[in-house]
Amino acid sequence: MRRTFPLALLFFFVSCSSVAQEQVVPEASDTVFPAKVTLLFVGDLMQHKAQLEAARTSQGTYDYSPCFSLVKEQISKADIAIANLEVPLGGKPYTGYPAFSAPDEFLYAIQNAGFDILLTANNHCLDRGKKGLERTILMLDSLHIPYTGTYRNKEERHQHYPLLIHKNGFRIAFLNYTYDTNGIKPSSPNIVNYIDKKVIQQDIDTARAWQPGAIIACMHWGNEYQSLPSREQRQLADWLLEQGVTHIIGSHPHVIQPMELRTDSLTGMQHAVVYSLGNFISNMSQINTDGGLIFTLELEKDTVASLIPHIRVRHCGYNLVWTARPTLSNEKNYIIYPTDSIPASKLPDTARNSLNIFVKNARKLLQQHNVGIREDKK
């Protein structure tokens, strides 16, 4: 049964001034609460034309429930599950690449799969212009799904950003930025968070003033189809950590890129840097684009509450997922498979061959370039 997220997770959309007004009341020094929180991240949730056709029912509605059926349990078990929503919910006509607009049923299925937070700052968030951006926000608000990255106006951004999440006694701030929006500029008064160091620095300062246990920057960056991070990605990652970001999670290249667990030589604090999670679901079929990562980050802290608790990385790891397209699987719909738990007889030979190519390439890349982060084997 899916947890009731809005009750279990109190999410605060607050400005710096509202924090000062409300004051976070310190818990008593002998208060004991859960000592760990598990965060789960996946890459791009895409919706190409072929996916639309596969999900369409005879009644003219759309059914995406098979897509997430094999990963739903893992997603729902996480305390906080985060994904990159790389399609606007712009209403009809529903379209795939290059200007996306997904049916509302796609969002319903994403929520039902167990995702708690959606990232909206990416290069496709303006595919349907002002209407698409605002309708996406309307749908997210109507389902009480916290999001970060795009806003109807300056006032809403000021009130809602950074996104501060309270869970299991942890306070975690989320940031989200994109390198571009395919050359389309937001219509006034809409706002998209672009990668701009001056703006990011201000946002980090705001987040730090709240004294969260972690600040996580979710970056839509890098070069498409490149399996290694660019120099710009590496330099920006270094800069983000220098400014006070705790962990960095990347998306956009549509392929997996390596990840690192860095240790600060002065403080001993560990920082997870994931350059690209790859695709979570899409119709992309170029080599290495038909799968991605589920990245798990488990944080722990002292069980006695304090104003500024010492939070540590208890564990971080990943497992590989692969999307079976109907043309390969002979199924009606697209299905995300955890690559380490597929029965030998489940997939036709053509599908299994494609899966094996993805897994072989991904493991070779990550075993060669990862630093301190290993695959979680079941």
The dominant shape is globular
- Average pLDDT, all residues: 90
The CATH C-level name is: Alpha Beta
Radius of gyration: 20 Å
- Low-confidence runs: 1-30
CATH architecture tag? 4-Layer Sandwich
> From N to C, what is the helix and strand string?
HEHEHHHEHEHEEHEEEHEHEEEEEEHEHE
Termini separation (Å)?
Answer: 22 Å
Fraction of helical residues: 25-40%
| Number of E-state strands | 18
Strand content: 25-35%
Structure commentary:
The structure is a single chain. By secondary structure, this protein is an alpha/beta fold. It has a single domain, classed as 4-Layer Sandwich (Purple Acid Phosphatase, chain A, domain 2). 29% of the residues lie in helices and 28% in strands. The protein has twelve helices and 18 strands. Strands 2, 3, 4, 5, 14, 15, 16, 17 and 18 form a nine-stranded mixed beta sheet that branches.
